[in-house]
UniProtKB/TrEMBL annotation:
Species assigned in the record: Saccharopolyspora montiporae
Class of the enzyme per the UniProt entry, highest EC level: transferase
Keyword line: ATP-binding, Kinase, Nucleotide-binding, Thiamine biosynthesis, Transferase
Pfam families assigned: Phos_pyr_kin
Family matches, as InterPro entries: HMP/HMP-P_kinase_dom, PM/HMP-P_kinase-1, Ribokinase-like
Pathway(s) this gene product operates in, as recorded in its UniProt entry: Cofactor biosynthesis; thiamine diphosphate biosynthesis; 4-amino-2-methyl-5-diphosphomethylpyrimidine from 5-amino-1-(5-phospho-D-ribosyl)imidazole: step 3/3
Residue ranges occupied by any Pyridoxamine kinase/Phosphomethylpyrimidine kinase domain in the UniProt entry: 12-259
Function text: Catalyzes the phosphorylation of hydroxymethylpyrimidine phosphate (HMP-P) to HMP-PP, and of HMP to HMP-P.
Reactions performed catalytically: 4-amino-2-methyl-5-(phosphooxymethyl)pyrimidine + ATP = 4-amino-2-methyl-5-(diphosphooxymethyl)pyrimidine + ADP; 4-amino-5-hydroxymethyl-2-methylpyrimidine + ATP = 4-amino-2-methyl-5-(phosphooxymethyl)pyrimidine + ADP + H(+)
Enzyme Commission (EC) number: 2.7.1.49, 2.7.4.7
Stored NCBIfam families: HMP-P_kinase
A Gene Ontology term for the protein's cellular component: cytosol
Molecular-function GO term, any one: phosphomethylpyrimidine kinase activity
Protein name stated in the entry: Bifunctional hydroxymethylpyrimidine kinase/phosphomethylpyrimidine kinase
Amino acid sequence: MIPNVLSIAGTDPSGGAGIQADLKAFSANGAYGMAVVTALVAQTTTGVREVREVPAGFVATQLETLLDDVRPDAVKIGMLGDAEVILAVASVLDRYAPPHVVLDPVMVAKSGDRLLAPRAVGVLRDELLPRVDLITPNLPEAADLLGEPELGAVGELPDQARRLTELGAKRVLLKGGHLSGEASADVLVADGEAEFLRDERISTTNDHGTGCTLSAAIAALRPQRPDWSTAAHEAKRYLTAALAAASRLDVGRGHGPVHHFHTWW
Ligand SMILES: Nc1ncnc2c1ncn2[C@@H]1O[C@H](COP(=O)(O)OP(=O)(O)OP(=O)(O)O)[C@@H](O)[C@H]1O
Ligand SMILES: Cc1ncc(CO)c(N)n1
């Protein structure tokens, strides 16, 4: 059976990040996609112009309406925007206990614009991290969650990922996309064990939504694969291919999107 996978996230009208990217990544990775919108974001490849939050009560109503009818096989959580929405999502997770929950702790867009209120970082750390199966922070997000300086070297990733599990996250995929070097390396830590996910670094400015794509692909693949490690390695390969395929796109003047392609078979 095709897995039903839910994204809880904000929007990107240019289709590169957020809900729009998640739905494409779900489809391309063999899942049926569903979405609950948490914030309307006026953004494109060049940056964010304005954000309108969806009231927390209505995020909860969207989730309850959906979950009373459909049981998802996995959930990906992205931009939540503020503390009230975080608490609403945490409470719904408690009541419905969906399997395979991935949290991308979105805080700042590639353009530098904030997508999470600074005072909500502690609420995300204390109320949501312990309730999900995997978190996928980038380096600035990991530093913010731990109150540490941002890492500058690949070799430091495993120890920082382990410290994130000490905050209550069951598993951590710490993304090294902001580092330079020949390879693009991330680290996955579960049960104290660390393993690297390495792939070639693609030379491109079409890197808008890479984080959304990776976490969405993991959520889509997890119900179809035996464990988190297999799903994460495969999602990483999918992202590298989508980054390489981005050279065929001509979208916007800034950080362009990756290309989610389907193999018809
Ligand atoms: N040029 C690249 N080539 C290959 N992989 C990359 C490249 N840039 C980023 N990645 C990979 O993309 C994923 C996302 O990494 P990154 O650290 O950029 O996340 P992010 O900052 O959350 O992304 P975004 O905010 O744009 O969605 C990681 O797996 C990272 O290794
Ligand atoms: C809605 C949304 N979520 C996440 C990101 C991070 O790239 C973004 N730019 N927009």
